[in-house]
Amino acid sequence: MVAVNNLASSAMMQVVSLHRYAVKGLSCDNMETVIIDKSFPFDRQYALIKSNKRSLLKDKEPEWLHKENFLCAFTANALLANFDAHFKDDEAELTLWKRIYDDKHVFMPSDTRAAEPLLSAKLGTVSGRAKVSDFFSNACGEGVELVTVGKDFQFGNTRSGVKARGNTRTCHIVNAATVRQVSEKLGVQLDPLRFRPNIIVDGLEPWAEFDAVGKHLVSSESDVLFDVVSRTVRCDGISVDPLDPKTILDLPSLLNQHFPEHGPYLGVYAVVDQPGILSTGDTFNIKC
Asked: Which residues cross the membrane (predicted)?
């Protein structure tokens, strides 16, 4: 039976955008359609681990590692906001540009990013990964190494997938209505991408996504089936707006202050129970 939730009878939970982060901490690729297996293809398959933490990552039987061990939004959000990344799946090629801001230091659309890329590297090669490692080591002033342990391992921010399925791969879902309510309460326009989602949905009441924890999301258009396993606890990584890195908000504290009934949580994590094709405009029902 379909669970009763906060959706009005005329409203649906609809996918409004899809996003993939090939390198943990860098900007996303926007997608219209995605073939989902255990997660989005290449999502967080690569990460910039700190050189002095490299021994923690086992190339065979790797385990989930906390984000403090990486150059990412949690450890270097203002720095990484200066770069615009694009990943080409068929060649596993990363291209990186410097972001261009206006005189108020607000990020301009991608067509106004620096004309010439800072680098282009094929991440499936040792030399390509070394090129990216060297670039970001110079950018942050400490040694980092671009690493991957294959398509079956995701450098995610949560242990939820490990706890639920013994697998690091998850999909992060954010409710646009929740972000709008937080924006209204704070008097600041927040972009849902600030919360680094894979899937942005709309049509729900604010915070109604939390009702789906422990339940399934069933697509009306395809075979995709998600099991929603946890709420998303927010950290300082969201305190810098990647589109306006000079403006800093302590969002975890503000969430606690203005929405104490929810605490520092926004978004949910889901694991894929049944693979399929997902597209913008698709709708979901919550099912027990």
From this structure: none
